[in-house]
């Protein structure tokens, strides 16, 4: 939800927010490079389809981390004549890229895992015992990803950066993926090798779900959507306190990185002058700016003689 991220964000200076966001992306990139190399190599050598699938996931993470770093840096550009609200929308675009990469990876992993499982069930799988080191790599991945989830979640909450929040979701998803690998490898070491590709398929399903959630949230950020119930009620209550406002027609919001732009249409008495209506609209703008910290701009439209009043 829009207000959940923005209300929990700290009032950081732009330089601090940008620096912390860049650090989170850089650390994520470094960690994923190490994990991608380790899991892919050990997955192949150790005959673990589940660990190899997770390694492919980490390799995909590296690719989109590089792309995401571009969007995070682009979002830091100041406002200009063509972009009066700045370039913060790149954060939501970056999150969209994360979601797309995650879903693509999930489909690839699922297909490969199902093929491997079919080979086992049909007796066409090649021989090769799963190496015990694959289990230790999977356990190490769980530990590392727990740390990265906590770290990026804190940074995402602190900065209200949609891209960093998406990275935190992906790290959290990687924890469950790695746990599935641990289960699959453990059963494989016990002689039930068909469980390993089955775990790989389950990993793919979890990865797909995370990608879908990221795409849904980032798409909402890029479109003019209704604010959540809590924020809508807060805006409505504050607006109706302004003398002269007799109803609310609509409330819409658009997110620009750390901030929110509100579009609200109000009803006023049809007998007042345009100047009086403008004065009421100005008071609505003032109270919303004053009471809601993360509001960057407010656009108020007023109508007279409402056919229906909502408020």
Architecture overview:
This protein has 311 residues and is mostly helical. The chain folds into two domains: 2-222, Alpha-lytic protease prodomain-like, CATH 1.20.1510.10; 229-304, Cation efflux protein, cytoplasmic domain (Alpha-Beta Plaits, 2-Layer Sandwich), CATH 3.30.70. It has helices at 2-8, 14-45, 49-74, 89-122, 133-159, 162-189, 195-222, 229-240, 274-291, and strands spanning 247-256, 259-268, 295-304. Strands 1-2-3 form a three-stranded mixed β-sheet, covered by helices on one side. The longest helix has 34 residues, at 89-122. The mean pLDDT is 78.
Concise structural overview:
This protein has helices spanning 2-8, 14-45, 49-74, 89-122, 133-159, 162-189, 195-222, 229-240, 274-291, and strands at residues 247-256, 259-268, 295-304. It is mainly α.
List the helices and strands and how they pair.
Elements: H1 2-8, H2 14-45, H3 49-74, H4 89-122, H5 133-159, H6 162-189, H7 195-222, H8 229-240, E1 247-256, E2 259-268, H9 274-291, E3 295-304
Parallel strand pairs: 2-3
Antiparallel strand pairs: 1-2
Helix pairs in contact: 2-3, 2-5, 3-4, 3-6, 3-7, 4-6, 4-7, 5-6, 6-7
Compute the number of structural domains: 2
Taking strands numbered 1, 2, ... along the chain, how are they ordered across the largest sheet? Answer: 1-2-3
CATH topology of the largest domain: Alpha-lytic protease prodomain-like
Mean pLDDT: 78
Instruction: State the separation between the terminal residues, measured CA to CA.
Output: 22 Å
Q: How many strands? A: 3
CATH class of the largest domain: Mainly Alpha
Radius of gyration based on Cα positions: 25 Å
CATH superfamily of the largest domain: Cation efflux protein transmembrane domain
Helix/strand/pairing category: mainly alpha
**Helical stretch tally:** 9
What fraction of residues sit in β-strands? 5-15%
CATH architectural type of the largest domain: Up-down Bundle
Largest sheet: 3 strands, mixed
Low-confidence segments, given as residue ranges, are none
The residue fraction in helices comes out at 55-70%
Shape: elongated
Order of SSEs: HHHHHHHHEEHE
């Amino acid at each position: 939800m829009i207000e959940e991220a923005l209300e929990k964000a700290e009032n950081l200076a732009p330089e601090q927010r940008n620096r912390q966001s860049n650090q989170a992306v850089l650390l994520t990139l470094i960690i994923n490079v190490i994990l991608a190399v380790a899991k892919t190599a050990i997955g192949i050598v150790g005959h673990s389809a589940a660990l190899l699938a997770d390694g492919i996931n980490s390799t995909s993470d590296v690719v989109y981390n590089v792309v995401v770093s571009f969007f995070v840096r682009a979002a830091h550009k100041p406002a200009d004549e063509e972009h009066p609200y700045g370039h913060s929308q790149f954060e939501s675009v970056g999150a969209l890229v994360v979601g797309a990469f995650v879903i693509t990876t999930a489909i690839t992993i699922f297909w490969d895992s199902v093929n491997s499982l079919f080979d086992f069930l049909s007796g066409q799988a090649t021989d090769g015992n799963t190496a015990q080191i694959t289990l230790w790599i999977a356990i190490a991945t769980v530990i590392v990803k727990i740390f990265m989830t906590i770290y990026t979640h804190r940074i995402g909450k602190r900065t209200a950066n949609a891209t960093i929040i998406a990275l935190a979701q992906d790290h959290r998803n990687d924890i469950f993926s790695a746990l599935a690998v641990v289960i699959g490898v453990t059963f494989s070491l016990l002689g039930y090798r068909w469980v390993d590709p089955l775990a790989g398929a389950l990993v793919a399903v979890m990865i797909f779900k995370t990608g879908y959630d990221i795409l849904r949230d980032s798409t909402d950020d890029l479109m003019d959507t209704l604010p959540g119930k809590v924020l809508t009620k807060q805006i409505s209550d504050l607006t109706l306190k302004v003398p002269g406002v007799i109803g609310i027609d609509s409330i819409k919001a658009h997110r620009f990185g750390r901030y929110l732009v509100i579009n609200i249409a109000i009803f006023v008495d049809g007998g007042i002058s345009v100047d009086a209506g403008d004065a009421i609209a100005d008071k609505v703008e003032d109270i919303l700016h004053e009471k809601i910290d993360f509001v960057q701009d407010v656009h108020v439209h007023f109508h007279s003689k409402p056919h229906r009043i909502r408020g």
